[in-house]
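dude i think i finally got it to work??
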Amino acid sequence: MRPPETAGKRVLLISHDRELRRQLHSCLSTAGIATTVLTTVRNGNECLAALAKMRLRLIVLDDSTTNLDGPGLLGALHQNASEVLVVYLTISHTLELERAVRQSGVLYYTEKPPDSSLLTKLLATVFTPLPETNLCHASTVTYSAPRR
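look at this
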């Protein structure tokens, strides 16, 4: 397992949604971590290829991405990069999906579009070093109730 401090400030967004990328970049800036490297890929295969090339701190997974099996990708991530934190965004909330995603140990699960203020707070928590260490928070688990 890679130590959290070596993962740096790298975020991988799995999405084809330009507005979501803009929102995520804005939240990173608002949280004071604009120096974070934000990389976007279009599908699960590109995600796994990116994992082989870079050390990530966080993956934001948009399950509306074409040809993406979100829960299946979470299983692959758990096997190949269990130390990487995952934010799971869905456009089709069901109790079955929520149960499967939560059981996989995601950091944050919510419907799309995510609430910017909550996402900003989450990002700030993930990327803020703990006092007297270089380690970042990793055990903060937050869930957002689906909007009705």
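Residues 4-127 form a domain with the Rossmann fold fold (CATH 3.40.50.2300).
im so relieved honestly
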